[in-house]
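New to this. Please check this fold:
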Amino acid sequence: MIAELEDHLKRSFNQEKLNLIGKLIGEGWTKDVLRFSANVTQYREQVNCHIWAQFGEVRTELAQFSFEEFPWNGDVLVSGNVYVSKHYQGYGIGKLLNAERIEVAKASGASAIICTVLEANIPERKVLFANNWRNLGRFKSGYSNTLVEFWLKELK
C-alpha cells in the first residue's frame, strides 16, 4: 500500500492544486513566489509529502505530512508529521492537506486513518473535528510531558 500512496500523492499534487495553495495564501505572499512544488518521497515504510514555495533562490517549506501502515494491519494508515509553517497558518492550508490525506488514503484502499495530535494544537484539532474525525481519547506523553490525543477517520 505504501507504493500506491506514493503514486497517488505524486499525481495529486499537480500544478493546479499547487496554484490553489497560492490562491489560499493570497497576493501578499504570491507576488514574489516563482513557483510552488511538492516533493513526495518514500523512506522504508513511510511516505512523506512536503509542499514548498520558491522565492528567487530561496526555497521555504509551507507544509508537510506523512503516512505509514499500521503495524500488522495494512488496512489502517497512521498519519503523522502534519505541519503547516507558522508563516502560512490561517490560510486554509491545513484544511486542504487534511482533504488530501483523506483522498489519497481512500484511493490507496485504506479503511481508516489514525493520528495523534498535541492537545495544545488547537488549529489541527479544529480541522479534524470539522472533517468528522473522532477523538478517541488522550494520554500524557512520557516523552514530551504533554497531553496527546488519538484521532480516527473511518473511510468506508
Q: What stands out?
A: Residues 2-154 form a domain with the Aminopeptidase fold (CATH 3.40.630.30).
